Amino acid sequence: MSVAFRRDSDEEHKEPKFEIPLPAGPNLVTARGLALIEAKVVELEAAIAAETAEEPREVLRRERRYWNTRRSTAEIAPPPEEGVVGIGSRVRIRLAGKARVIDVVGNDEADPHADRLAFSAPLANALLGAEAGERVDFNGRPEAIEILEVVAIPD
After folding, report:
1. Beta strand 28-29 with 75-76: parallel, antiparallel or unpaired?
2. Beta-carbon contacts of residue 11 (< 8 Å; ≥ 6 apart)
3. Do 141 and 107 share a structural domain?
4. What does the alpha-carbon distance between residue 152 and residue 64 come to, in Å, rounded to a whole number?
5. Is residue 138 a contact partner of residue 62, using CB atoms and an 8 Å limit?
6. Tens digits of residue pLDDT in 69-94
7. Which residue, 86, 112, 117, 152, could crosslink 124 as a Cys pair with Cβ 3.0–4.6 Å?
8. Which residues of 83-99 are buried (b: 16+ CB within 10 A; e: fewer)?
9. Which residues contact 70 (CB under 8 A, 6 or more apart)?
10. Quick check: 124 and 118 in contact, CB under 8 A?
11. 84 assigned to some structural domain
12. How does pLDDT run across 138-148, given as a tens digit for each residue?
């Protein structure tokens, strides 16, 4: 039999498992965001300890490596200047005639469905540094967003 047709194991033919990609740029977080990262690490460590099968355990270890990296690189963002949009701000805006409230947070804390946007998201990024009463450009439209109010995200 030709060596080309011999197969010793399926392991050599599996797709490689790459690490979970990290968002580019600094890992700026709010205090709440750091607590969420730490809770995720604890949750994954418990899941790894409880898992008996090797393949699912390796998937959990991979995820834990991601969150450990995020925890070790996390920098709590300085509190935003009063009345100025920054990481940790709750911003009430008017966009396309509709009022909306957005929390500007770190990448790992973001939840767009709950209007918690990462500072790197286009909408949140457009708001950074703006103050109440200002209008900012967005999506190629000048003065598309009106900043109605800026406060710190309540604890």
Report:
1. parallel
2. none
3. yes
4. 31
5. no
6. 999 999 999 999 999 999 999 999 99
7. 117
8. eebbbbbbbebebeeee
9. 22, 27, 37, 108
10. yes
11. no
12. 999 999 999 99
